[in-house]
Specification:
Elements (H helix, E strand, L loop, with lengths): L1 H12 L16 E6 L15 E6 L6 E2 L3 E7 L6 E4 L5 E2 L4 E7 L17 E4 L14 E7 L24 E2 L9 E7 L6 E2 L12 E4 L9 H4 E4 L15 E5 L1 E4 L3 E9 L7 E5 L10 E3 L14 E7 L5 E11 L4 E11 L3 E2 L2 H5 L25 E11 L3 E5 L12 E5 L13 E11 L9 E13 L9 E2 L21 E9 L5 E5 L4 E4 L2 E6 L11 E2 L13 E2 L6 E4 L17 E10 L12 E4 L24 E12 L10 E4 L4 E2 L8 E2 L3 E4 L7 H18 L5 E7 L2 H15 L5 E5 L14 E7 L3 E8 L5 E2 L8 E2 L6 E7 L8 E9 L13 H19 L6 E6 L12 H6 L22 E2 L12 E3 L2 E3 L2 E5 L1 H5 L3 E5 L24 E7 L8 E4 L7 E3 L4 E8 L6 E8 L3 E5 L4 E2 L4 E8 L5 E11 L2 E12 L2 E5 L6 E5 L4 E10 L5 E9 L8 E4 ...
Parallel strand pairs: 7-8, 16-22, 23-24, 26-28, 29-30, 34-35, 36-38, 39-44, 51-52, 60-67, 69-78
Antiparallel strand pairs: 1-2, 1-13, 2-7, 3-6, 4-5, 4-9, 9-11, 10-12, 13-14, 15-17, 17-20, 18-19, 18-21, 21-22, 24-25, 24-27, 25-26, 27-28, 30-33, 30-37, 31-32, 33-36, 37-38, 39-58, 40-43, 41-42, 44-46, 45-46, 47-50, 48-49, 50-51, 52-56, 53-56, 54-55, 57-58, 59-61, 61-65, 62-64, 62-66, 63-65, ...
Organism: Terriglobus saanensis (strain ATCC BAA-1853 / DSM 23119 / SP1PR4)
Protein name: Endonuclease/exonuclease/phosphatase
Pfam families: Exo_endo_phos (PF03372), HYDIN_VesB_CFA65-like_Ig (PF22544), LTD (PF00932)
């Protein structure tokens, strides 16, 4: 279609007649551009270093350059420089060919930094080309010769016809045109050569450019114009098609409007004719539009065609057809969107606004109380001075105002299509449009009055003095003044002597995969001298009433805040990047209310003037590390590291678990799947490797340099175990200590997050100071169905992890046991919903769940619960979760929409409440400082000195700091809570137990009794053993050495030796390093007596003849006033009795105190023979003898008495002999006789617990 149009255009133009030149049918390459401003010696101040000639192929087929040459001659010379074009080259249809003239080498050789890229370089000084092209007068010829390119020769004027049918004119310097394809003579050619008329002089900074590459007339002057050099080589791709775009316009009926359309020239387009069909508005159907600076056209030759006219029409939106036809007969069409408005009522700006009250209802409970402009909904016309211009509108202010301080003199003009052309600050403008309220009254308590522009006329393009700004003082914007304090100054210029920021500069956008933020130039501030605003208890007064039966506290929204926008008027280059506490002196800007949607909680916005000098800003706060812990302290930090995701993994690790019966979603899918108790793909973002490395580096800086390497760090919003490991490894590497931290999180194998966004919780544990005993997940799988819901939902999106650990206290010393809990509770989003209870109930039930768990721990457990609680230190009126969690200050049920529950746990302490009020913040939202991150602990830790500090490195800093790997600032959006806990000295306790019965009993005076004690180290560190001593009648020995390890024992022996009768007491005292332990000792001393023979001996001896008796006198002597009854007994020692030997003693006797008593022991031995008889012994006697012998024999065997055995055998033998032979009058053996020998008997004397023995050795003869 394009080729057909081109051919048709050539055909038609070949017959068209022009006023001064005949159009030629072009069938060969043509010269389209000549640049002569270059030089081989000096090109200072020129666009390019070297000259060039540009050729173009206007035909439909490629043209080989074999046989073509380029030739140049100066103004009037007859001498030509000739150079053959590359024979193997060709010019495709519609393409260019660029020839550059430059030395082959040297300082001024071709330089791509200073020259266009050519298709061919003609080496000046060789091959017949010896000079630069002239920028004033000269002639260039394109020649063709099937053989060798030959330099042209002068023939005189008007001699012959060129190959393409034109005739040269001029002086005798014209060459023979027989080989000339195209010829251009330019400059002062009165005595030179040209085609019909010479083209203009070029000049050193311009080029001679063919007006239409595809058209060659019979006049150099008609074909060429001087313009900016635009060299095109064979790679050049221009716009090949003609196009037209109508520009929309708005105007007021009966007033003038300029219709414009922008034309895109095709490759062959050099001129175009544009017409508009205005028949629908009473105009011509073929109304021309102009690009010559007339008829409303702003700039001639810029390809924007215009026509200024006056149209009378009802209010309507019209579509005006426009058509363009170019010099090649190519056409295009488009439309101009035309919005017609009716003339508005002329109203001054202050009358449009009406009076505004600076004191609105408090609290604001319903939107019906919001005031709007009296002209809302009315089409008006007004005028004013432009005080500021944004991208979608501008501000107007009445130059004088009405003098009423309650009436705003300014207004925002919303221009949805485009800012009026040429509009500038200081212009006086008349605008027409409808007055609207924005934001809508139903979503904002302080909406702006704005004019929706339909038409604007700049009535004074000069720069008028801007209206003097209203000076705002601290008294005009106070913490108690309410939301409406600044509404009387809406849309007006204001100035503030000094502002202090209460936030860092915010961001307009985040590319999360690359983790880069783009600033929006906005930050919050208060008038300097106003205290920093903090979030306060209760429901924000802008929120809708959720439950009318409740009477929660009301938060006043901190109306002293102001949002400052440094880019609205100034663009991104004017953005001011700062942190909280920065001071901006002498601030001037326009006060805007269009940004006051209640969901942003912004009462007013100050749009900073374009003239503000940001170099005058005094910088704000810098990163604030926490104090270094003392040697007797350990630290636990709670750090929300904000959506810390890793790059895509070979095995995807972005999983989350959904309890059975709950809807799960895969990735960003909105299709629910009822879980059977399974994992799903989370929405975790796969960040780039570079982004991940930057975040790891920043986090390492934060942990090392700002938190001072805490002993335990609870992590919130870490993706999983893999990411936690990477964090630990980065810190360990940067710290130069391998293994310094060990990481623990959900491993996607045995533990999972239950959060569809893919964030979880975890720990960093410093291995040099902490022993990890166990990490356990709790709360997983719990679900609930909220009121009004029909299906269960997950209760704990990030089930809490519990670290049971021991804080090291030194070699041989028991660790100090702690239980650290990390939790990340439900966000605040949705808690103010008027349609769903889900968020409020989930937050409360989560708090109850963990509180019950803490209560289940053994008494005395040292609990540290850290995390992002997503709750303030007080109730926000919707929930009271921290009160439930700590069982402290639980509000009455009528003061909270979702009340807390008391009594679930022994009261805990929120360490944040121990801080001064002006130090309680870990997060900044809408310019309000607030706490979301807490450390909740058991009271024993507080009693021992627990306290905390916040490391301020994130919440107060510009979001663009996220992009900087060299600073820890903006590692995340939360500051870090760091708790300091006293590491108590080890308990040096010990225990004493006995190894024998606990009483020494009664012990005779002077005697001893020993009792064993065991000393056990029951403490937490080795005992330095110092001494073991006893008082009274007790003595001590031990094997304890100098040190006793934890859990070890040693023995202590205590000996009781009474010195007096009666109960005797003493105290055993064991002294060791760090303490002592004692045991009471009790024993009874008993007065005694002694027993000896009459000679005072014990033992004693005596002798007795068989058949006789002997006595032994024993003397009993009272000692220490002993008196009492003494019982006596006599037994053979070891029960070895002598046959027939008896021992008789008195049964008892009484020994008086201080007296002696002699008692007789009688020992009787049986005779060994009996008198004989005249005849043999009777049978019974014989049997008795044999029986006695048997008894003695058995006794000897049983008692192991060899003598008795022998006697027994003799008796048996004798009895047998007597029976055989009989006896006469001789003696007979006594079977019961006492044999000769030595025997031992013991006489035992006992009195109560006293017992003494006198041993008697008796010799029987």
């Amino acid at each position: 279609m394009k080729n057909f149009a081109r051919c048709l255009a050539i055909l038609l133009l070949s017959f068209a007649s022009l006023a001064s030149a005949q159009t030629q049918l072009v069938t060969q390459p043509v010269i389209t551009q000549i640049y002569g401003g270059g030089s081989t010696s000096n090109t200072t101040g020129t666009p390019y270093q070297h000259d060039y000639v540009e050729l173009y192929n206007p035909t439909l087929s490629p043209i080989s350059l074999s046989g073509y040459g380029i030739q140049y001659g100066s103004g009037s010379t007859a001498n030509w420089n000739a150079f053959a074009l590359t024979p193997s080259a060709s010019i495709p249809s519609g393409k260019y060919y660029l020839i550059l003239f430059a030395p082959a080498s040297g300082t001024f050789a071709y330089n791509p930094a200073k020259d266009p890229v050519p298709d061919q370089i003609v080496s000046i000084g060789s091959n017949g080309f010896t000079t630069d092209l002239s920028a004033s007068n000269g002639k260039v010829a394109l020649t063709y010769n099937a053989g060798t390119v030959t330099a042209l020769s002068a023939t005189g004027g008007n001699t012959g016809t060129s190959l393409t049918g034109f005739t040269l004119a001029g002086s005798a310097s014209c060459p023979n045109p027989a080989t000339v394809v195209d010829f251009v003579g330019y400059g002062n050619q009165s005595a030179a050569c040209y085609v019909t008329a010479a083209a203009p002089t070029i000049g050193a900074t311009n080029a001679l450019i063919r007006k239409s590459p595809a058209i060659a007339t019979t006049s150099n002057f008609a074909d060429f114009a001087v313009g900016t050099p635009n060299p095109r080589n064979s790679s050049y791709t221009g716009v090949t098609t003609l196009g037209i775009t109508g520009n929309s316009a708005s105007f007021v009926s009966t007033q003038s409007v300029t219709l414009t359309a922008t034309v895109t020239y095709g490759t062959a387009t050099t001129s175009a004719t544009v017409t508009a069909d205005l028949s629908s508005v009473g105009g011509s159907a073929t109304q021309p539009l102009f690009d010559d600076g007339t008829n409303g056209d702003a700039t001639a030759g810029d390809k924007t065609y215009s026509f200024k006219t006056t149209i009378t029409s009802p209010a309507a939106t019209l579509s005006i057809p426009v058509t363009v036809v170019d010099n090649t007969a190519a056409t295009a069409s488009g439309t101009i969107a035309l919005t017609v408005a009716q003339p508005g009522v002329a109203v001054r700006i202050y009358d449009i606004q009406g009076a505004k009250s600076s004191t609105g209802p408090s609290p604001v409970s319903v939107y019906s109380s919001v005031s709007t402009a009296p002209t809302a909904g009315v089409a008006v016309q007004t005028s004013g001075i432009v005080t500021g211009i944004g991208t979608s509108g501008f501000f107007l202010q009445d130059p004088t105002g009405d003098g009423n301080p309650a009436t705003p003199d300014g207004i925002y003009v919303y221009s949805p299509n485009a800012i009026p052309s040429g509009l500038a600050i200081g212009n006086t403008v008349t605008v027409t449009g409808k007055i609207t309220t924005y934001p809508a009254q139903t979503v904002s308590h302080t909406p702006a009055t704005e004019l929706n522009l339909t038409f604007a006329t700049i009535t004074n393009t000069g720069v008028s003095p801007l209206p003097a700004p209203v000076v705002l003082t601290p008294a005009m914007l106070t913490p108690t003044g309410g939301l409406y304090q600044l509404t009387p100054y809406e849309g007006m210029r204001v100035s503030i002597p000094s502002l202090t920021t209460t936030s860092g500069t915010d961001s307009a956008s985040l590319n999360e995969s690359s983790e880069t933020y783009t600033s929006n130039g906005q930050f919050y501030a208060v008038i300097t001298g106003t205290p920093r605003p903090f979030r306060e208890p209760g429901i924000d007064l802008r929120d809708l009433v959720v439950d009318a039966s409740k009477t929660p506290a009301v938060f006043d929204d901190n109306p002293e805040r102001m949002l400052v926008d440094s880019t609205f008027f100034r663009g991104t280059a004017g953005s001011i990047e700062l942190s909280t506490g920065a001071v901006l002196p002498n601030v001037t800007g326009v006060l805007d209310m269009t940004y006051s949607n209640d969901s942003f909680y912004d009462p007013s916005r100050l749009l900073l003037d374009v003239s503000y000098d940001k170099t005058t800003v005094v910088p704000g706060m810098t990163v604030q590390p926490v104090p270094t812990a003392a040697a007797t302290q350990f630290t636990v930090a709670s750090f929300n590291i904000e959506r810390f995701y890793n790059p895509a993994q070979a095995t995807p690790d972005n999983l989350y678990y959904v309890p059975a019966g709950v809807n799960g979603y895969n990735g960003s899918s909105n299709t629910p799947i009822v879980s059977t108790g399974q994992t799903f793909i989370s929405e975790a973002v796969d960040v780039t490797t570079a982004a991940y490395a930057r975040r790891l580096q920043k986090l390492s800086l934060a942990v090392r340099n700002v938190l001072n390497l805490p002993d335990v760090v609870t992590l919130e919003e870490v993706e999983n175990q893999s990411v936690a490991n990477d964090i630990a490894n980065q810190i360990n590497t940067d710290a130069g200590t391998p293994g310094l931290y060990a990481a623990y999180s959900t491993d996607n194998s045995t533990t999972y997050t239950q959060d569809g966004t893919g964030i979880s919780v975890g720990f960093l544990v410093k291995t040099t100071t902490v022993d990890k005993l166990a990490v356990t997940q709790f709360g997983q799988g719990h679900t609930f169905t909220y009121t009004g819901g029909t299906q269960p939902i997950t209760l704990n999106d990030r089930p809490w992890l519990v670290l049971n650990a021991g804080v090291k206290r030194g070699d041989g010393i028991k660790d100090y046991p702690v239980t650290v809990i990390v939790n990340h509770m439900k966000a605040l989003t949705g808690e103010n919903s008027t349609t769903s209870t889900s968020t409020r109930q989930k937050k409360e039930l989560q708090a109850e769940d963990i509180a019950k768990y803490i209560q289940s721990l053994p008494a005395g457990t040292h609990v540290i619960s850290g995390g992002d609680f997503n709750a303030f230190e007080f109730s926000d009126g919707y929930t009271d979760t921290l009160a439930t969690y700590t069982n402290t200050n639980v509000l009455p049920a009528n003061q909270v929409v979702q009340p807390g529950v008391a009594g679930l746990v022994t009261p805990l302490t929120d360490l944040a409440l121990l801080l001064p009020a002006d130090q309680r913040w870990s997060y900044v939202e809408y310019g309000n400082a607030q706490i979301l991150d807490h450390l909740v602990v058991t009271p024993d830790l507080v009693a021992a000195g627990a306290h905390m500090a916040y490391a301020h490195l994130n919440a107060d800093f510009p979001t663009t700091a996220y992009n900087d790997a060299a600073t820890p600032a903006r590692t995340s959006d939360h500051d870090v809570a760091v708790g300091y806990f006293t590491l108590p000295p080890p308990n040096m306790g010990a225990g004493l137990t006995t190894t024998t019965p606990p009483s020494f009993g009664s012990v005779a005076i002077g005697s001893t009794s020993t009792q064993g004690f065991v000393l056990t180290n029951t403490g937490e560190a080795p005992l330095g053993f110092i001494s073991a001593t006893a008082t009274g009648d007790f003595g001590v020995t031990n094997n304890c050495g100098t040190s006793l390890a934890v859990g070890s024992t040693c023995n202590i022996a205590v000996t009781f030796q009474p010195t007096l009768p009666g109960t005797r007491t003493g105290l055993l005292t064991v002294v060791f390093s760090g303490g002592r332990i004692a045991a009471t000792l009790i024993g009874v001393g008993v007065a005694d007596f002694t027993v000896t023979d009459s000679a005072g001996k014990n033992p004693t001896s005596a002798s007795v003849t068989a058949g006789t008796a002997t006595t032994v006198g024993l003397t009993f002597t009272s000692l220490n006033s002993f008196s009492g009854t003494i019982a006596l007994s006599c037994t053979a020692v070891n029960s070895v009795f002598a046959p027939g030997l008896t021992c008789n003693v008195p049964a008892t006797f009484t020994l008086a105190a201080g007296a002696t008593s002699t008692q007789t022991v009688t020992l009787t031995a049986n005779p060994r023979t009996l008198p004989s008889r005249a005849s043999g012994l009777p049978t019974e006697t014989l049997l008795g003898g044999m029986l006695s012998g048997i008894v003695l024999l058995m006794a000897g065997r049983l008692r192991k008495m060899r003598l008795a055995s022998v006697l027994g055998m003799l008796l048996i033998g004798l009895a047998a002999m007597s029976a055989a032979t009989g006896c006469s009058d001789s003696s007979n053996l006594n079977p019961a006789g006492t044999p000769a020998g030595t025997f031992t008997y013991a006489v035992t004397a006992t009195s109560g617990t006293l017992s003494h023995t006198e041993t008697i050795t008796i010799t029987v003869q």
